[in-house]
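User: quick one, fold this
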Amino acid sequence: MIHFYELSSMSGAERTRLLRRAEIQIEELTERVRPILQGVRQRGDEALLEYTERFDRVQLTPDRLRVSRAEIEHAHQALDAAVREAIEQAIANVRTFHMKQMPHEEWFTEVAPGVMAGEKITPISSVGLYVPRGKGAFPSVMYMLATPATIAGVPRIVVCTPPGPGGEVDPATLVAADLCGVHEIYCVGGAQAIAALAYGTASIRRVHKITGPGSGFVTAAKRLLYGTVDVGLPAGPSESITLADEAADPELIARDLLIEAEHGPDSSSLLVTDSRALTEAVLALLPGKMAALPEWRQNFCRTVFEGPEGTGGIVLTADMREAVTFVNEYAPEHLEVQVREPFALLPQLKNAGEILIGPFTPFCMGNYCVGTNAVLPTGGFAHTYSCTSVYDFLKRTGIAYLTREGYVALSETTRRLAEFEGFPAHANAVTGRSG
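Assistant:
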């Protein structure tokens, strides 16, 4: 039976669990991940190979960790031409959108006569991109990460992605990386890959920042490494909310609820609506839509919508105001809005990784080719984190310049504040300074 929640009658514990979704599992994985990180830090490549054999059931040698140019060329030959064409079109749209985000490299403003303040924008010197594979191949994640990184001008971009059954990297992912101009790619995944990027090994030099979505193990690893390396935005298991009213088409709603749910059993997918009629229609349609999927994807969706640990389903609210309040509290990774007047409602929607508006903008369009970035904060972190952009690969440095006039105007202010706060060296530096 599909999970159904009437918001007004939900217990506090039930509501809390729904809001926490897959975060529960991530917390449970922390202690399992800790020794993996320690192993890679202490034993480097040896541990990487050991964990790859244990978790991915693939035996590799140190010389096979890095993907060769020959493997990339072979990927181009192996990839279906229609898939390559789709990847190229998607990259073009993503690139066009992200180019618009690039700020000026340097700017100044005169905050007072003779007082100049500004910023210098520079790329991060090295970043690691994590591209998952466990439940499928994700070339889309590759270009969603690599495109803004290359536009930002990051000098060293490193990719880690899990091996397939034969120890190979997915050809579509390699082609996407090559089309984006990224060539340092390693065939290693999971928590061990995150550890390698953070600590470095003989084969993989450490980076200054890691970003990209992944399993609960990857998310737990990044949280444990916070403070050792910049771990970027929290991008864990997929989650979505479809916000709809009585004007929505139940057929489209039922289809769209399965988009993020089919990612895996730890995904979250909710319909939030104030319409009981829509609720009943979708409850009737959803089982048939699930049954039409391939068995393994069907099983994922059944776990999400029907399993005892599943965090998907339908939330019925008293009115649209209560629905919006719940959505803002949940802060979903993906938010689809199918209401009669979506742009009138848009100003009230405060917390979401992305907002997709109208019946012709399903989650899958945002995931692949609209142009906006699909690597988004999960687990409620859309309250404070933004979608992936060029800004994730840039840093700002403050710049200031005082003319003699500006110095004279500010020296007494500086001296008074320094003395008040008890810093005599600060005060002495402007006392009697020749202007």
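User: anything notable?
Assistant: Residues 4-22+237-371 form a domain with the Rossmann fold fold (CATH 3.40.50.1980).
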